[in-house]
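Problem: given the chain below (329 residues), write out its structure.
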Amino acid sequence: MIALVTGGAGFIGSHLCEMLLEQGHTVRALDNFSTGRRANVAHLINHPKFTLYEGDIRDPETLVTPFQGVEWVFHLAGLADIVPSVENPTTYFEVNVHGTLNVLEFARRNQAKRLVYAASSSSYGIPELYPTPEESPIQPQYPYALTKYMGEELVLHWANVYKMPNLSLRMFNVYGPRSRTTGAYGAVFGVFLAQRLNNKPYTVVGDGQQSRDFTYVTDVCAAFYAAAQSTWVGEAFNVGSGGHQTINRLVELLGGEITYIPKRPGEPDCTFADTRKIHAKLNWQAQVSFEQGVANMLACIDDWRDAPVWEPASIATATASWFKHLGTP
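Solution.
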């Protein structure tokens, strides 16, 4: 297949490009490098079946060439992080919603045989049921979650109206090598690894008993590949590890001191995917244990050597708008 990965130089996208190439496919990666890094795919540049395109999904002109003759489209390009979405909701709408519309239309015009969308489990908000099934209420707590869900609605609507072979994968707490090292305060692994390198205590939110469905990046890529090979259309699937781990357990595996910071509004105490549907329909389940995944992260900890080192005071400043807009009135 000729496969296009939007956001192909990003964290998950670069791993997906690797997997597709290993399976013998021709791979095109499209990225504007706003969050993705060229270094993530530098080792692929000379591969005879790999092409890197610089382009922005908001700009249709940059999409023409990458989409020509494409058969599989993996749409991972988008903006993440909570605080920037609260501060810049218009930009998030332009990228995650209108950008997704552009990708859908180019895939439709080029008669792509499959489009798989990277959705977010954050759309469930604070779930009412654990493990959380796909039928759970959608109740996004901030613009990032909302715009990712709006993108998913477009993907599934285009499957229904235009009979496009689209699927959506709702990812839970993806982690692994090449996860973002710079930018806004965000994912716990990047924060903790930089703190460990600099002998700083881990800034644990609340009492550390909150748990997350940490899902290793290669497992996530395998889910995308299974979705591309399937015959299902117009479905949304959870992609999770099959369990959930407390932040205290993560600290135990990393080793080090702790300092506690205030619990934040709009965050669930637990994320835990019900993965029965994806196992039954796509024959997929996660393979990498949490302990192995953390060991893999520690083996490449030097990747976070230049990452920002967050401390309670800088986190309080960075998350001020979070508390202002998402806190109880």
